[in-house]
Amino acid sequence: MATAIEFEHVSKQYRLGLVSTKTLSHDIRRFWITNVLGKEDPYLKIGETNDRASKGTSEYVWALRDIDFKVEQGDVVGIIGKNGAGKSTLLKLLSRVTGPTTGTIRAHGRIGSLLEVGTGFHGEMTGRENIFMNGAILGMSRAEIQSKLDEIIDFSGCERYIDTPVKRYSSGMTVRLGFAVAAFLEPEILVVDEVLAVGDAEFQKKAIGKMKDVSQGQGRTVLFVSHNMASIRQLCTRGVLLEKGMVKMDAGVDEVVDAYLADQMNGNGIDRYGLGNVQFADWSVGQERIFMGDDLDINFKLVAKKDYYGDLHVNMNIFNSHGDRCVHTSNFDGPLAVQIKKGESINLTNTLKNVTLAPGRYFITPWCGTGAEAFDCITQCMSFAVEQGTKVIQRPFPYTSQYLFALPNTWTVRK
Fold first, then answer.
1. 14 forms bridges with which residues in the sheet?
2. Are 351 and 377 within one domain?
3. Domain count, the chain
4. What are the phi and psi torsion angles at 214 (to 5°)?
């Protein structure tokens, strides 16, 4: 199979704050060393790893560092990683929005990109005019674009506004039209960033279906960035996990997604946010592995950083390995009044009765706050596994990912 995309030791460095090296003499010296003498850029030796959570000491950061992999024609590759890992930068380099600092990128074929709302659109031009402009940029003739025009307009659902300037479109309408243009103008390589999350559920379903058709039915290559692990698993056959601008893992999509979720659970890259008035100081599950129909205790310790009087909301969401939210619980299902002073702590236990989740691994995200404001939320900081048991289902059955719950049931035959 032919290679569609090649990244050969690609790196991208940025200077924080300002463009250039601050002084004209330094800029001239840098130009002389790199462009005239052909030597290595001295500023490439002082960059730091791109870690958004730490301040650092250098003004230069590596958004990407030594990216080296190939994508075969017809592959559907999911690029995943936490915010700031370099996913969008990678797609911008491929789409030639910006150039790499070092290394080489080879793309064999036309690239259709949807990197952010309004990519490639001119606000003063109508939707119809923007379709023809984008097609021309891709090297298509007017006749070729005209033959696809009705399909693009129909898919976007923007027919009533197609002759209205794009600047008057909502973000959802702009994304709909942008995706339709990128997908229907027959690029050999389709590059789609997280922008699809702007669309509604109906459009996201259509977009995923179209990308499947483009890759499987037409043999084109798709690179897809998303934080929605269910969409990544559904669409992609291969995954690339980025961490701090470097490739941490390149393998089958299920293996990569599982590794990413496990990293989050183990504290490597956990996202945490909140005002901090009250925070989770400790958390644990009673059993790391249970059988279907068992009870499960989830334990929390909360510490007040400031005095807080009132009813504290403590919520818990449980997600499966596909990213679907399966369970939501709250102490406000049975109100728990909390009056806690600075430095004090309380211990809470949430007991799940008769857990009928399907076999598999599940991840827990705890949240506490006032209801209107978040004090603390930690993304998928715990996990547990559910195995087949005899309490819910009386005879063994094969594992399938087609369901979330196993509910007790009976069958009755009537004649």
1. 61
2. yes
3. 2
4. -60, -40
- One-letter amino acid for residue 154 of the chain: D
CA separation for the pair 80, 99 (Å, rounded):
21
C-alpha 369/C-alpha 50 separation (Å) is 31
Examine residue 189 and state whether it is found in any structural domain, yes or no.
Answer: yes
| First-residue to last-residue Cα distance in the chain | 59
Torsion sign, CA atoms 318, 224, 262, 289: positive
Task: Give Cβ neighbours of residue 413 (< 8 Å, ≥ 6 apart).
Answer: none
pLDDT tens for each residue of 296-334: 999 989 898 887 766 788 888 998 877 778 888 887 765
Q: Of 248, 265, 282, which residue constitutes the final position of a domain?
A: 265
CA nearest neighbour of 272 among 382, 380, 383, 349: 380
Distance CA 278, CA 81 (A): 28
Sign of the alpha-carbon torsion through 322, 327, 332, 337: negative
Place of tokens 């389709």: 190
Higher-confidence position of 44 and 285: 285
Cα separation of 298 and 312, whole Å? 18
pTM tops 0.90, yes or no: no
